[in-house]
Amino acid sequence: MYAAEPSGLKRAREIARTKARSLLAQLNLPEKLWALPPATFSGGEQQRVNIARGFITEHPVLLLDEPTASLDAKNRDVVVALIAAKKAAGVALLGIFHDLDVRDAVADRIIDVTSFAAGKIAA
Length: 123
Hints:
By secondary structure, the chain is mainly alpha-helical.
């Protein structure tokens, strides 16, 4: 026989599930996919699951590596809105963007690293 789950843990799990459902719905992942293994998803669907995983937590810094790669325009706009919401909440963001429109929409400061070379000191 298993011990009953503590009410605090049960509540935390329900909050996490609610947040996950909300993010997956925002990211246009059909509910019928939610119980399936992500390995069965398309590249764009996998990207959206990874975005949901990154955005569900409350951390002071968010690292973004091409967060809109493999996404269509509709889902790209959703991700830009999620990034904007994190920024508005005071989260620091460090990202790599090849999509200049997305970069310009979310960046406060841009550092072009194309001129960096081995042995050079970055400014």
